[in-house]
Design brief:
- It is a single chain.
- The chain contains 19 helices and 16 strands.
- It has 466 residues and is α/β, with parallel strands linked by helices.
- It has a domain at 3-39 and 58-70 and 213-276 and 410-465: 3-Layer(bba) Sandwich (FAD/NAD(P)-binding domain).
- The strands form four sheets. The protein has a seven-stranded mixed β-sheet with strand order 7-6-12-13-14-11-15, with helices on both faces. Strands 9-2-1-10-16 form a five-stranded parallel β-sheet, covered by helices on one side. It has a two-stranded antiparallel sheet with strand order 3-4.
- Strand 3 (42-43) and strand 4 form a beta hairpin.
- Helix 6 crosses helix 7 (146-156) and helix 7 (146-156) packs across helix 10 (192-205).
- It is globular.
- The two termini are 12 Å apart.
- 59% of the residues are buried.
Length: 466
């Protein structure tokens, strides 16, 4: 029987294992840690009975993933849960905006920009499935829906700041900037507009759900599909040399195939991987908050995800500083209030809250107070409600998951080139140039997120070449 080894049990590694096992290969997924899932893990980090997500939290790409949708994950124990508001963006003085799972409902919170928001997003949401399938595939290829993608590309190729010129109000501009900030890039960079459009259309078409029982439930469901398909998972075993198998999939950062294969890689592949640049890092705090965060903006108190950073100009300045290697005084902070959709994560009135800041790559300082200051800015009294805290630095993130180099959870800096040529310019960017060897991590198309599409696409190509 043809054998396959997948190194890493993140969403892409498990997805690759499922595709290979269903094709009849003898598949083993090897995980270095004692727990499967990569970023899809959950634990009681602060107060007993309060369940936190260790890394991934809200999952717009998960619920939108064509591969996940094909697996019937509900039968394997995964249940998506939605908050009343998908995402909110508070501003000073109790103002703000809210993204809801409906274009008209979102537009209603934007005052004078309601019509402009509707004109931009309504046509995209109507074609959400076609756009999602195309953007979650390699860009150096004919997209599944070329005409739809031509329109989307024309809208999204310019910088986020250019797209935001459609709006007059601070609320609409800030809401779009918060969506774009998931790129962790300056908002004047080309193609950042596409990031804001993608997260906006996903939120209004599919929502930003959480997994009932924590993000680890996604890993358990994928593992259940894998074992049902004949594959197996080995935990607590770090792979240091090339496995003896017909197919080897690396669900890892680019440094691991470089270190393991060295000169065995063709020169063109090796040089591309050596030039690959990691992105900025994240600094995360998990809070146990008695009574929840006292947001001044009412809709923010109902939101599963909150973008904390102020105006578009402030967010752009913060992310520009981070990309230049400087820690901003007021960083962009993403907050997740998963308990609003999944109340069982709380212990009575004590609720889990995740908050992470964008920080420079490999940042060695402590961003805890900067994050808390940003929360206090829009929710005075937050500090008084915190009854437990767990801090995770960029170094802690990498120690927890070797793929998170310098705290980078996105798989590489989001420049225009590294978005198109991910990790190299090729019609098959997953191949490492050696028969049977593939890279299937977030360093390959379509990039970061819990969607499994990189693993699905890499493994599908591997099967076609056998």
């Amino acid at each position: 029987m043809t054998t396959a080894v997948v190194i890493g049990s993140g969403p892409n590694g498990l997805a690759a294992g499922i595709v290979l096992a269903r094709a009849g290969l003898d598949v083993t997924v090897v995980e270095a840690e004692d727990e499967i899932g990569g970023g899809m893990r959950s634990a009681e980090l602060t107060v007993p009975g309060v369940l936190h997500d260790v890394c991934s939290a809200a999952h717009p790409t998960g619920v939108a993933s064509p591969f996940f949708s094909s697996l019937d994950l509900e039968r394997h124990g995964l249940t998506w849960r939605w908050a009343e508001v998908e995402a909110a963006h508070p501003l000073d003085g109790g103002r703000g905006a809210a993204l809801r799972r409906d274009v008209d409902a979102t537009a209603a919170s934007l005052g004078a920009d309601a019509d402009a928001w509707r004109r931009l997003f309504a046509p995209l949401v109507e074609r959400a499935d076609a756009i999602t399938r195309s953007t979650l595939a390699p860009l150096v290829a004919v997209p599944p829906h070329p005409l739809v993608m031509a329109r989307f590309g024309a809208l999204g190729l310019p910088p986020s700041t250019f797209v935001a010129r459609r709006f007059e109000t601070e609320e609409a501009r800030a809401l779009f900037a918060g969506l774009t900030a998931h790129a962790v890039a300056p908002h004047t960079r080309w193609a950042t507009g596409a990031i804001g459009l993608m997260f906006g259309l996903m939120g209004q078409a599919k929502g930003w759900p959480v997994a009932e029982g924590g993000s680890a439930a996604i890993a358990r469901a994928l593992t259940s599909v894998l074992t049902e398909s004949g594959g197996r998972v080995v935990k607590g075993e770090r792979v240091t040399s090339l496995p003896d198998a017909d197919v080897v999939m690396f669900d890892t950062a680019v440094d691991q195939p470089l270190a393991m294969l060295g000169d065995r890689l063709p020169r063109r592949v090796r040089r591309a991987l050596e030039r690959w640049r990691p992105g900025p890092g994240l600094f995360k705090i998990d809070l146990a908050v008695d009574g929840g965060i006292p947001w001044q903006h009412p809709d923010t108190a109902l939101a599963g995800t909150v973008h904390v950073g102020g105006t578009l100009e402030e967010i752009h300045a913060a992310d520009s500083a981070v990309n230049a290697g400087r820690m901003p005084q007021r960083p962009f902070v993403m907050v997740c209030q998963q308990y609003l959709a999944d109340p069982a994560r709380s212990n009575g009135s004590v609720h889990p809250v995740l908050a992470y800041a964008h920080v420079p790559h490999g940042y060695t300082g402590d961003a805890t107070q900067a994050i808390l200051d940003q929360l206090e800015r829009f929710a005075p009294g937050t500090r008084d409600r915190v009854v437990g805290m767990a801090v995770t630095s960029t170094a802690d993130l990498q120690a927890h998951n070797a793929n998170y180099l310098g705290g980078d959870v996105t798989g590489g800096e989001m420049t225009l080139w590294q978005t198109v040529a991910r990790p190299r310019l090729s019609l098959d960017p997953y191949r490492l140039g050696v028969p049977g060897l593939y890279l299937c991590s977030s360093a390959t198309p379509p990039g970061g997120g819990v969607h499994g599409m990189a693993g699905f696409q890499a493994a599908t190509r591997a099967v076609s070449r056998l």
